[in-house]
Amino acid sequence: MQHWLEHAIRSFVECDRGNRLPGSCRPIFGAPLVGYADAQDPIFARLQEEGVVGPHHRTPVDWLPEAATVVSYFLPIDPDINRRNYPVDYCSERWLYARFYGELFNERLRRKIAARLRAEGYEACSPPLMDEFASRELSSNWSERHVAYAAGLGSFGLHAGLITDKGVSGRFGSVITELQMQPTPGERTDRTENCLWFSGGECRTCADRCPVGALHPDGKDKAACRAHLRGRGRSVQQEYGFPYFACGKCYVDVPCERTVPQG
Ligand code: SF4
Ligand code: SF4
User: Fold this and answer.
1) Which residues does ligand 2 sit against, CB inside 6 Å?
2) What is the reported pTM?
3) Residue 155: pLDDT above 80?
């Protein structure tokens, strides 16, 4: 049976007007995936190791001392928005809008989930909404992708994104709560199991699509990716008023865009 919280998350994604681009009736995001991690899971200590996220990454109890569960979700982007971003030249306008308005919606969803839990009598918080949240140059102290991995939602690809059952193209969010919930059933996948390259296949599609060659088998060149985003950011800010640029070429028109690819 679906947990009442998952039902609330799904209803909000389906019905909230914030999940729309201006002037459009199509949702930005389709039905979400929801996963749960035990707040005491040793995986959160492992995320603090150098080379994983790093010592600056905080554990659930650092954010909420009474933490029992981390609720993590994935919001898959509408296929039409993905398609508009297939050409490998400029980031499509629709993708850019989805990046900006999609994250505004994601913030609303984080607030909504935390508020619903509190209304039921359970303390809850969402790190990206808190004053202590710090996003450094190339990493933050609460990585939604890594938290989603901890909650069993997928595994990492050559593009460094998390490949879920609904693919990689989407946004992640999470809420920490004192409500005790059953962790997502099943074994957490191997760290890179869902990627065709890492599982011994020929695929390098995401790397071939990257306009600045930032994706390599030994890791993503985050600085090159960030420099690409920054370089375009100024003009986007002037033209649209958005605080950043978006790219996403490695997340679309790839075998793992909307599913776990089969080798
Ligand atoms: S496009 Fe291919 S190589 Fe890149 S993450 Fe997806 S499956 Fe892996
Ligand atoms: S977001 Fe763009 S620049 Fe960054 S790795 Fe992906 S394709 Fe390359």
Assistant:
1) 159, 210-212, 214-215, 225, 228, 247-250
2) 0.95
3) yes
